[in-house]
Design brief:
- The chain is α+β, with helices and mostly antiparallel strands.
- It has a domain at about 50-109.
- About 35% of the residues lie in helices and about 20% in strands.
- A four-stranded mixed β-sheet has the order 1-2-3-4, with no helix packed on it.
- Strand 2 and strand 3 form a beta hairpin.
- It is rod-shaped.
Length: about 110
């Protein structure tokens, strides 16, 4: 008798699940629209890196490669007079109308 009661119970569950599936169909969900969010762009740092767009620059006996920190540029030289190279760098700044007040030079050989 237990055998039939278990079969009856399982059949009842199958019938209930079938009825639920038939009558409770999932409703169509609204389409989700992808709305682009605004992204935060980095602010231009031309005050801290005024020469950034002009680098790297190669002179006769030197190369201005990059900034190592704000307002400090790296200049690689070929063992020549640093005063002459500094004059050439200042002339390059003046030719390009660059405001370079406060820029320090890190000399490397």
């Amino acid at each position: 008798m237990k055998k039939y009661s278990l079969m009856f119970f399982l059949c009842l569950i199958i019938i209930l699940m079938s009825l639920i599936k038939i009558f409770y169909k999932p409703t169509e969900t609204m389409e989700t629209k992808m709305v682009p969010t605004s992204t935060v762009l980095p602010t231009p740092t031309t005050n801290l890196y005024p020469l950034q767009s002009k680098l790297p620059y190669q002179g006769k006996n030197f190369v201005i490669e990059k900034y190592i920190e704000p307002m400090v540029i790296t200049v690689k030289t070929k063992r020549t007079d640093k005063n002459k190279i500094k004059e050439e760098i200042i002339q390059w700044w003046e030719v390009n109308n660059l405001s370079v007040e406060g820029i320090q030079i890190d000399w490397q050989e």
